[in-house]
User: Fold this.
Amino acid sequence: MDQFIQAAIIGVSLGAQYALLALGFTLIFGILGVVNFSHGGFYMLGGYVAYSCVAFLGLPYPLAVLVAVVATGALGWVFELFLLERLVDDHLATLMLTLGLYLVVSTGLLTVFGPLSMEFAFPVTGALHMGPIYVPRENLIVLVVCLAAIAALWLVLFRTDLGRGLRALADDRAVAMAQGLRPKLLFPLAFAIATGLAGLTGALVTPILSLSPNVGDPVLATSFLTVILGGLGSLEGAALAAFVVGIVEAFSSVYFGGSIGALVLFVLVLLLLVFRPTGLMGRPVRGA
Amino acid sequence: MRIKLLGWTEIVALLLLSCGFIVPMFTRSVLVYSVLNQAFVGVIAAESVWIMLRMNLLSFATPAFMAIGGYTVAIAGQYDITDAFLMTAAAFLVPALVAVPLGALVLRLRGTYFVLVTFVLSQIMQLLIFETPGLTGGSNGISGVAPVTLFGAEMGTNRLVLEYACGLAMGATLITGVLTRYFRQHFAAIEENEILAESLGLVVWRYKALGFVVAAGVAGLAGYSLVNMLLTAHPSSFDSATAVDFIAYTIIGGRLSILGPVLGTGALVYATNLFGTHGQYAQGLYGVLILVVVLAARGGIVGTIAALWRRVS
Amino acid sequence: MTELRVESLAKRFGGLRVFQDINFTLPEGGLLGVIGPNGAGKTTLINVISGRQMASAGKVVLGGRDITNQPAHAVSRLGLARSFQQTNTFKSVSVGENIARAIRFGGRGAPVGLNRMMDAFGLTPRLAEISDKLPYGLQKMLGLVMAFASTPKIVLLDEPAAGLERTERQSVDTFVDIVRKAGTSVLLVEHDMDLIRRMCPRILVLDAGVLLADGPPAEVLARPDVIAAYLGETEEAH
Ligand SMILES: Nc1ncnc2c1ncn2[C@@H]1O[C@H](COP(=O)(O)OP(=O)(O)O)[C@@H](O)[C@H]1O
Ligand SMILES: [Mg+2]
Assistant:
C-alpha cells in the first residue's frame, strides 16, 4: 500500500511535468499546425540557462528559472518570426525546420558544456515524512510550480482576449483571420509561450533528473506520446493524457520494471493514431 | 509510350557507388574502408527514406525496418545460416513482409500524421528489442555474428566486407531506381496531387503500399549491411534517433533524384568523419544544412548543382 | 448500357444537411444540366457520386452496378470521370505529361476526339509548357481534357465555365460536343444560364439541398419557385 501511494505521488508529479511539456507542444500544433521537433531542445536549453545563471552568475535559483523561461521564450519567438513564419503552411518544411533547430541547439549545448552531465542540484533538499510515506521536497515544489504554470496558462487562454484569439486561430484559421485576428502577431507569441513552457519545465526538472545534451530526445518522445493520446491540438486532452502517462510510467516502473509500460503506451498511441486520431477525448482536429 | 527501367541519374548513382570496388585496389587504409562502409549503409537507409519522400511521405521508421533486417540476419547466423544470397533475400523480405500489415494500418494517414506514426513505430521497435532478450539479446544485442559466406567461402577480410557492402548498396540502388523509375508518373502524381490522381483512376493506396513495402525491404538491407560490418546486432545501431541522420542525408542531398540520397550520404558521412572522434558535433552541421536547404535551396545539393549547371549552359 | 441512377441520395456533415432525397437518372449518352444557387450542394453531389465523399443515405448506381461509397479510383475505373470547380492539374509538369498521366491512370487508352479537342482549345502547340504557367482559362480547360482523356462513359463537370471570359465559354460547348460524339454522357453543373439554356435538353434545380425541379429548361426556368430560389442571385455569382 505504501508503495502504491508512493508510486501515485511520483506519477502525479511526473504528470504535471509532462503536462507542461505537452501543453506547449499541442498549442503549437493546434495553432500553427506545426509538429515541433525542437521541443526537447527548448527543454534542455531551459535547463542549461538556469544552470548557467546559478553556477556562473550566482543568481538565486528562482530567478534563474525565470531567466530560463524568458530566454527560451525569446528564442522561440525569434525562430517563429524569422524562419518558421515563411513556410508556416508547409507541414513538411516546418517540421524539418524545427528538426534542424533541434540539432543546432543540442550541438550548441554539447559544444559549450561538453557531453557530461552537469552538477546541477535542486536548492531545496530533504523530504516530507507522512508516516511510512515520504515525498522529496523538491518534487513537491516542482509539482506546485507546474500546477501553478498550468493554471496560469489556463487563465491566459480562457480568460483573456489574447487567449480567445489564440484559440480562435486554432479552431479555424480562415474564420479567425476574417474576424481580423493577425496570425503574424499571434503565431510567434504562441510559439514563444510554448517554448517558454518547455524551458520552464527544463529549468525545474533537470536539477532533479539530469542535465546533459542528450536529454532532449526522450522529452520529445514523451511529448509525442502525451499529445497524441490526448488528441493532437487539444489542450484538455493533453493535460489529462499527461497525468495518465505519468501515472502509468510510475506504476509500471515500480511494479514491472523495464520499459514495458512505455511499450504499452506507444502501442496504444499507434492504434489511436490509426483509428482515432482525435485522441482519447475525441475532439475534432485539423484535417490529416 | 516507352517506360525506361533506369535513367541516367540511376546509372550515375551506380557508377559513383562502384568506387567501393575500385578504392580497395589503391588503398588498404582502415579509415577509408570504415568511412566507405558507413556511407554504403547510409546510402541504403537514405534510399529507403527517399522512396517514401517520392510520395511526399516523410518516414522516421527506417531504423525499425533496419532492425528487423539486421536481427533477422544475426539470428539466422546463430543457426549457422550464412549464405550471402539467402541472407540478402531474408534481410529484404522479412521487413518487407512485416511492412504489409503495418502499411495497411499506417498508410491511411497523410502528412504530419504519417510522420508521427512512423516516429512512434521506431520507438516501439526500440522498446521491443529491449523487451525480447530471448530473441534479440535485449540490451546486450547479439555479438559475434558469423561473417557471410559466398558460395561457401567466408567473406571475412576487410576488403571483402567492403566489397559486399558496396554490392548491397548497388543492389539497393538498383531496386530503388527501378521502382521509382518504372512508377515515376504514379509516384509523382501522388506527391503532387493525390486527389486528382485518384479521380483519374490511379489506385493510390496500391502504390503507397508498394513503396512502403519496398522501402522497408531496402531499409532491411541497410540493417543487414550494418550488422555485417560490425558483426554485431546491437540496439544502439537501430536507435530511433538515427532516423534523423537518414532524413538529413536525403533532404540535404536533394529529394528530386536518386542522386540526392547518394551524394547527400557521401558528403555528410565524409563531413562527419572530418570531426574525427567528435562525430556527435556533426549533428550541428546537419541541423544548419537542413535549415539552409529548407529555407534557401529546396533542391538540396543535387538541385543546386543542377541549377548552377543550367545557368552555365 | 451505362446509365447513372441516383436514388434517394443524401449527404450530411455532422448536423449540416447538405442535400437529401436526390433522385434522377442520366441515360446513356445523355446530357443533364444541374443548376442551383451557391451553397446548394452541387459540388458535394459530384463529390458523393464520384466517391470523393461518403453518402449519408441512398444509392448511386452506374450501369446497373451499385457504386455507392466506392473509393474514387474505383468509380473512375468503372468509367465515371469528374472535373473540379477550381483549376486542378499536376502543376509542376507539362501539359503533355498531364494528359499522358490521365490516359495512363485511366487504363482505357486515349479516347476518340482527344486530339481534336486539344486542337480546339489551343493546347496542342503548348504541350511542352508547364501547366501552372498556362492562363487560368486554359488550365481549367486542361482539367476538362484530363477528365475526358481517361476515356470515361460518364463525365461530371463542376462549373466548367466559372471564371472563364465570355469569349472562352464557347470551349465548354465544344467540349460537350466532342465528349458526346464519343458516346460519353454528361452531367453539367453550371451557373451560366445562357450555357445551360443553349445546351441542355433537361435540367435539375437544386436548392438548399432539395431537388426543386426537373425538366426542360424553358419550362423549369419559368417556374415561380425556381425564380424565387434565384432571386438576388446574378448569373455571375460564384
Ligand atoms: N467538408 C465540408 N464540411 C462541412 N460542410 C461542408 C463541406 N463541404 C461543403 N460543405 C457545406 O455544404 C454546402 C454545400 O456546398 P457545395 O456543395 O460546395 O455547394 P455548391 O457547389 O452548390 O456551391 C455548403 O453550405 C458548404 O458550406
Ligand atoms: Mg460548387
